[in-house]
Amino acid sequence: MPEDKPFSINVGQLKARPKQADQSRVEAVDKAAAEHGFVQREPGGRRGRPKSPRTGQVHAKVLPNVADEISQEAQRRGVTQGVVIEEAWAAYLESNGRR
Amino acid sequence: MPTIAIASPKGGAGKSTTAVILGTELAHAGVPVTMLDCDPNKSLTLWAARGTVPDRIKVLTDITESDIIKTIREHDRDGQIVIVDLEGVASRLMSRAISQADLVITPMRATTLDAMIGARTIALIQEEEEALGRSIPFAIVFTMTKAVRSKQHSGIEASLSDQGVDVIKPELMERAAFSSFFEFGGDLYSMPAQGKIENAQENASAFAKAVFERLVGEGADA
Question: In this structure, are residues B27 and B55 in contact, taking their beta carbons and an 8 Å threshold?
Protein backbone atom coordinates (compact mmCIF):
# COMPACT_ATOMS: atom_id res chain seq x y z
CA MET A 1 0.00 0.00 0.00
CA PRO A 2 1.55 3.31 -0.99
CA GLU A 3 1.89 6.05 1.57
CA ASP A 4 -0.88 8.62 1.69
CA LYS A 5 1.47 11.21 0.16
CA PRO A 6 3.81 9.11 -1.92
CA PHE A 7 6.07 11.94 -2.90
CA SER A 8 6.54 15.33 -1.40
CA ILE A 9 6.38 18.50 -3.43
CA ASN A 10 7.86 21.83 -2.58
CA VAL A 11 5.46 24.13 -4.39
CA GLY A 12 7.97 26.92 -3.96
CA GLN A 13 9.95 25.22 -6.73
CA LEU A 14 7.13 25.91 -9.17
CA LYS A 15 7.85 29.30 -10.68
CA ALA A 16 5.87 31.14 -13.32
CA ARG A 17 8.02 31.73 -16.37
CA PRO A 18 7.29 34.64 -18.68
CA LYS A 19 6.36 33.67 -22.23
CA GLN A 20 5.81 35.88 -25.19
CA ALA A 21 2.24 36.21 -26.36
CA ASP A 22 2.20 39.44 -28.36
CA GLN A 23 0.27 39.47 -31.61
CA SER A 24 3.33 39.00 -33.81
CA ARG A 25 4.43 35.91 -31.84
CA VAL A 26 0.95 34.42 -31.98
CA GLU A 27 0.86 35.01 -35.74
CA ALA A 28 4.28 33.39 -36.10
CA VAL A 29 3.09 30.35 -34.13
CA ASP A 30 -0.12 30.13 -36.17
CA LYS A 31 1.90 30.28 -39.39
CA ALA A 32 4.32 27.58 -38.25
CA ALA A 33 1.39 25.43 -37.11
CA ALA A 34 -0.48 25.84 -40.41
CA GLU A 35 2.56 24.53 -42.29
CA HIS A 36 2.22 21.30 -40.31
CA GLY A 37 -1.53 21.03 -40.79
CA PHE A 38 -2.45 22.44 -37.37
CA VAL A 39 -5.14 24.81 -38.56
CA GLN A 40 -8.26 26.50 -37.31
CA ARG A 41 -10.84 23.82 -36.50
CA GLU A 42 -13.43 25.85 -34.67
CA PRO A 43 -16.44 27.19 -36.51
CA GLY A 44 -15.99 30.81 -37.48
CA GLY A 45 -18.22 33.66 -36.45
CA ARG A 46 -21.54 34.64 -38.00
CA ARG A 47 -21.44 34.21 -41.74
CA GLY A 48 -22.62 36.75 -44.28
CA ARG A 49 -23.01 40.48 -44.13
CA PRO A 50 -23.03 42.00 -40.64
CA LYS A 51 -26.35 43.34 -39.38
CA SER A 52 -27.08 46.94 -40.35
CA PRO A 53 -27.64 49.44 -37.54
CA ARG A 54 -30.21 51.15 -39.82
CA THR A 55 -33.39 49.81 -38.32
CA GLY A 56 -35.54 52.97 -38.57
CA GLN A 57 -37.88 53.54 -41.48
CA VAL A 58 -39.26 56.60 -43.24
CA HIS A 59 -42.47 56.38 -45.20
CA ALA A 60 -42.18 59.05 -47.83
CA LYS A 61 -43.80 59.52 -51.19
CA VAL A 62 -41.78 61.85 -53.37
CA LEU A 63 -42.00 63.00 -56.98
CA PRO A 64 -40.87 60.31 -59.43
CA ASN A 65 -37.85 62.25 -60.61
CA VAL A 66 -36.64 62.76 -57.02
CA ALA A 67 -37.04 59.05 -56.34
CA ASP A 68 -35.07 58.26 -59.51
CA GLU A 69 -32.30 60.72 -58.64
CA ILE A 70 -31.93 59.37 -55.06
CA SER A 71 -31.83 55.85 -56.43
CA GLN A 72 -29.22 56.67 -59.09
CA GLU A 73 -27.01 58.58 -56.62
CA ALA A 74 -27.10 55.73 -54.11
CA GLN A 75 -26.28 53.22 -56.82
CA ARG A 76 -23.43 55.35 -58.14
CA ARG A 77 -21.86 55.58 -54.69
CA GLY A 78 -22.57 51.98 -53.75
CA VAL A 79 -24.59 52.87 -50.67
CA THR A 80 -28.20 52.39 -49.72
CA GLN A 81 -30.81 55.07 -50.34
CA GLY A 82 -31.03 55.41 -46.55
CA VAL A 83 -27.49 56.79 -46.45
CA VAL A 84 -28.40 59.49 -48.98
CA ILE A 85 -31.46 60.43 -46.94
CA GLU A 86 -29.39 60.55 -43.72
CA GLU A 87 -26.93 62.91 -45.38
CA ALA A 88 -29.77 65.09 -46.67
CA TRP A 89 -31.20 65.25 -43.16
CA ALA A 90 -27.80 66.15 -41.70
CA ALA A 91 -27.44 68.93 -44.29
CA TYR A 92 -30.92 70.18 -43.43
CA LEU A 93 -30.09 70.32 -39.71
CA GLU A 94 -26.86 72.15 -40.40
CA SER A 95 -28.49 74.68 -42.69
CA ASN A 96 -30.98 75.45 -39.94
CA GLY A 97 -28.29 75.87 -37.32
CA ARG A 98 -29.47 72.87 -35.33
CA ARG A 99 -26.22 70.93 -35.43
CA MET B 1 3.05 28.59 -12.80
CA PRO B 2 4.28 25.76 -14.95
CA THR B 3 1.88 24.89 -17.73
CA ILE B 4 1.68 21.34 -19.02
CA ALA B 5 0.00 20.73 -22.37
CA ILE B 6 -1.24 17.19 -22.96
CA ALA B 7 -1.13 17.11 -26.73
CA SER B 8 -1.39 14.68 -29.58
CA PRO B 9 -3.26 14.97 -32.86
CA LYS B 10 -4.15 11.29 -32.47
CA GLY B 11 -7.49 10.51 -30.85
CA GLY B 12 -7.76 7.68 -28.32
CA ALA B 13 -4.14 7.97 -27.18
CA GLY B 14 -5.11 8.54 -23.54
CA LYS B 15 -4.77 12.32 -23.29
CA SER B 16 -7.69 12.95 -20.94
CA THR B 17 -6.85 9.97 -18.75
CA THR B 18 -3.25 11.16 -18.55
CA ALA B 19 -4.47 14.67 -17.66
CA VAL B 20 -6.69 13.34 -14.88
CA ILE B 21 -4.03 11.02 -13.48
CA LEU B 22 -1.48 13.83 -13.45
CA GLY B 23 -3.84 16.47 -12.07
CA THR B 24 -5.21 14.32 -9.28
CA GLU B 25 -1.80 13.00 -8.23
CA LEU B 26 -0.22 16.45 -8.14
CA ALA B 27 -3.18 17.79 -6.17
CA HIS B 28 -2.94 14.80 -3.83
CA ALA B 29 0.69 15.71 -3.24
CA GLY B 30 -0.31 19.27 -2.31
CA VAL B 31 -0.13 21.32 -5.51
CA PRO B 32 -3.01 23.59 -6.57
CA VAL B 33 -3.92 22.50 -10.11
CA THR B 34 -6.01 24.28 -12.74
CA MET B 35 -7.20 21.94 -15.47
CA LEU B 36 -8.29 23.46 -18.78
CA ASP B 37 -10.72 21.37 -20.79
CA CYS B 38 -10.08 22.35 -24.41
CA ASP B 39 -11.65 19.24 -25.89
CA PRO B 40 -15.11 19.66 -27.45
CA ASN B 41 -15.85 16.15 -26.14
CA LYS B 42 -15.50 17.65 -22.65
CA SER B 43 -13.83 14.63 -21.11
CA LEU B 44 -12.44 16.56 -18.13
CA THR B 45 -15.77 18.23 -17.53
CA LEU B 46 -17.42 14.83 -17.60
CA TRP B 47 -14.90 13.52 -15.07
CA ALA B 48 -15.45 16.54 -12.83
CA ALA B 49 -19.21 16.02 -12.95
CA ARG B 50 -19.05 12.32 -12.07
CA GLY B 51 -17.90 12.81 -8.50
CA THR B 52 -16.47 15.29 -6.05
CA VAL B 53 -13.62 17.24 -7.59
CA PRO B 54 -10.60 16.65 -5.33
CA ASP B 55 -9.27 19.45 -3.16
CA ARG B 56 -6.91 21.89 -4.86
CA ILE B 57 -8.28 21.13 -8.34
CA LYS B 58 -10.18 23.63 -10.46
CA VAL B 59 -11.60 22.63 -13.85
CA LEU B 60 -12.30 25.29 -16.47
CA THR B 61 -14.31 24.25 -19.48
CA ASP B 62 -15.11 25.52 -22.98
CA ILE B 63 -11.69 27.00 -23.59
CA THR B 64 -11.39 27.98 -27.24
CA GLU B 65 -8.70 28.93 -29.70
CA SER B 66 -9.34 32.63 -29.14
CA ASP B 67 -9.05 32.53 -25.35
CA ILE B 68 -6.52 29.76 -24.63
CA ILE B 69 -3.49 32.06 -24.36
CA LYS B 70 -5.37 34.61 -22.25
CA THR B 71 -6.71 31.87 -19.94
CA ILE B 72 -3.30 30.31 -19.40
CA ARG B 73 -1.78 33.70 -18.65
CA GLU B 74 -4.55 34.57 -16.21
CA HIS B 75 -3.68 31.49 -14.18
CA ASP B 76 0.06 31.97 -14.43
CA ARG B 77 1.03 32.03 -10.74
CA ASP B 78 3.95 30.69 -8.74
CA GLY B 79 3.34 27.50 -6.78
CA GLN B 80 0.58 26.16 -9.01
CA ILE B 81 0.26 24.06 -12.14
CA VAL B 82 -1.95 24.39 -15.20
CA ILE B 83 -2.79 21.24 -17.15
CA VAL B 84 -4.25 21.70 -20.62
CA ASP B 85 -6.20 18.79 -22.10
CA LEU B 86 -6.56 19.11 -25.86
CA GLU B 87 -8.68 17.48 -28.51
CA GLY B 88 -7.05 14.71 -30.53
CA VAL B 89 -6.88 16.70 -33.72
CA ALA B 90 -4.23 18.86 -35.37
CA SER B 91 -5.55 22.29 -34.51
CA ARG B 92 -4.48 25.86 -34.04
CA LEU B 93 -5.79 25.61 -30.49
CA MET B 94 -3.22 22.89 -29.83
CA SER B 95 -0.37 24.92 -31.29
CA ARG B 96 -1.32 27.98 -29.24
CA ALA B 97 -1.47 25.95 -26.04
CA ILE B 98 1.96 24.51 -26.83
CA SER B 99 3.29 28.05 -27.32
CA GLN B 100 2.54 28.77 -23.65
CA ALA B 101 3.68 25.41 -22.25
CA ASP B 102 6.61 24.68 -19.95
CA LEU B 103 6.26 21.01 -20.77
CA VAL B 104 4.39 19.20 -23.53
CA ILE B 105 3.45 15.59 -22.86
CA THR B 106 2.30 13.40 -25.73
CA PRO B 107 0.54 10.26 -24.56
CA MET B 108 1.05 7.47 -27.03
CA ARG B 109 -0.07 3.88 -27.21
CA ALA B 110 2.75 1.57 -28.18
CA THR B 111 1.66 1.23 -31.78
CA THR B 112 3.28 2.34 -34.98
CA LEU B 113 0.24 4.43 -35.91
CA ASP B 114 0.31 6.33 -32.61
CA ALA B 115 4.04 6.88 -32.97
CA MET B 116 3.71 8.19 -36.53
CA ILE B 117 0.92 10.61 -35.67
CA GLY B 118 2.52 11.60 -32.37
CA ALA B 119 5.65 12.53 -34.31
CA ARG B 120 3.68 15.39 -35.84
CA THR B 121 3.63 16.98 -32.38
CA ILE B 122 7.42 16.81 -32.24
CA ALA B 123 7.69 18.52 -35.62
CA LEU B 124 5.24 21.21 -34.53
CA ILE B 125 7.12 21.88 -31.30
CA GLN B 126 10.39 22.25 -33.18
CA GLU B 127 8.77 24.84 -35.48
CA GLU B 128 7.28 26.70 -32.51
CA GLU B 129 10.62 26.76 -30.74
CA GLU B 130 12.07 28.55 -33.75
CA ALA B 131 9.15 30.95 -34.02
CA LEU B 132 9.26 31.81 -30.31
CA GLY B 133 13.01 31.69 -29.79
CA ARG B 134 12.74 29.50 -26.69
CA SER B 135 12.93 25.79 -26.02
CA ILE B 136 9.74 23.91 -25.23
CA PRO B 137 10.48 20.77 -23.19
CA PHE B 138 8.72 17.74 -24.61
CA ALA B 139 8.22 14.18 -23.43
CA ILE B 140 6.13 11.23 -24.43
CA VAL B 141 4.47 8.70 -22.16
CA PHE B 142 3.33 5.30 -23.28
CA THR B 143 -0.25 4.62 -22.25
CA MET B 144 -2.43 1.53 -21.91
CA THR B 145 0.63 -0.69 -21.90
CA LYS B 146 0.51 -4.36 -20.96
CA ALA B 147 2.58 -6.25 -18.41
CA VAL B 148 4.13 -8.22 -21.26
CA ARG B 149 5.88 -5.79 -23.55
CA SER B 150 5.48 -6.27 -27.30
CA LYS B 151 8.35 -6.14 -29.78
CA GLN B 152 6.59 -3.22 -31.43
CA HIS B 153 6.62 -1.33 -28.12
CA SER B 154 10.31 -1.98 -27.54
CA GLY B 155 11.12 -0.99 -31.12
CA ILE B 156 9.21 2.29 -30.94
CA GLU B 157 10.76 3.20 -27.60
CA ALA B 158 14.27 2.42 -28.83
CA SER B 159 13.66 4.51 -31.94
CA LEU B 160 12.43 7.49 -29.90
CA SER B 161 15.33 7.25 -27.48
CA ASP B 162 17.79 7.08 -30.37
CA GLN B 163 16.33 10.36 -31.63
CA GLY B 164 16.79 11.97 -28.23
CA VAL B 165 13.11 12.02 -27.36
CA ASP B 166 12.42 12.07 -23.63
CA VAL B 167 10.30 9.06 -22.66
CA ILE B 168 8.70 9.32 -19.23
CA LYS B 169 9.11 6.35 -16.93
CA PRO B 170 7.02 4.78 -15.63
CA GLU B 171 4.58 4.36 -18.50
CA LEU B 172 0.87 4.33 -17.70
CA MET B 173 -0.28 0.75 -17.80
CA GLU B 174 -3.73 -0.43 -18.81
CA ARG B 175 -5.55 -0.51 -15.50
CA ALA B 176 -9.17 -0.78 -14.48
CA ALA B 177 -8.74 2.11 -12.04
CA PHE B 178 -7.49 4.46 -14.77
CA SER B 179 -10.44 3.76 -17.05
CA SER B 180 -12.80 4.14 -14.06
CA PHE B 181 -11.99 7.82 -13.59
CA PHE B 182 -14.77 8.67 -16.00
CA GLU B 183 -17.23 6.45 -14.21
CA PHE B 184 -16.64 7.54 -10.63
CA GLY B 185 -14.88 10.90 -10.89
CA GLY B 186 -12.62 11.92 -8.01
CA ASP B 187 -9.16 10.40 -7.64
CA LEU B 188 -7.55 7.02 -7.06
CA TYR B 189 -7.90 7.47 -3.30
CA SER B 190 -11.64 8.18 -3.32
CA MET B 191 -12.98 5.81 -5.98
CA PRO B 192 -14.26 2.33 -5.10
CA ALA B 193 -11.41 -0.15 -5.43
CA GLN B 194 -10.95 -1.19 -9.07
CA GLY B 195 -8.60 -4.08 -9.77
CA LYS B 196 -5.32 -3.75 -7.92
CA ILE B 197 -5.88 -0.18 -6.79
CA GLU B 198 -2.57 -0.03 -4.87
CA ASN B 199 -0.67 -0.78 -8.07
CA ALA B 200 -2.61 1.91 -9.91
CA GLN B 201 -1.87 4.43 -7.15
CA GLU B 202 1.81 3.54 -7.23
CA ASN B 203 1.94 3.78 -11.03
CA ALA B 204 0.12 7.13 -11.09
CA SER B 205 2.18 8.60 -8.28
CA ALA B 206 5.49 7.61 -9.83
CA PHE B 207 4.37 9.07 -13.16
CA ALA B 208 3.36 12.38 -11.53
CA LYS B 209 6.67 12.47 -9.67
CA ALA B 210 8.56 11.98 -12.94
CA VAL B 211 6.61 14.85 -14.52
CA PHE B 212 7.17 17.11 -11.52
CA GLU B 213 10.91 16.46 -11.67
CA ARG B 214 10.90 17.55 -15.28
CA LEU B 215 9.03 20.74 -14.38
CA VAL B 216 11.63 21.72 -11.81
CA GLY B 217 14.48 20.66 -14.06
CA GLU B 218 15.56 17.46 -12.36
CA GLY B 219 14.08 14.67 -14.38
CA ALA B 220 14.67 14.31 -18.11
CA ASP B 221 17.16 11.66 -19.07
CA ALA B 222 17.12 12.39 -22.78
Answer: yes
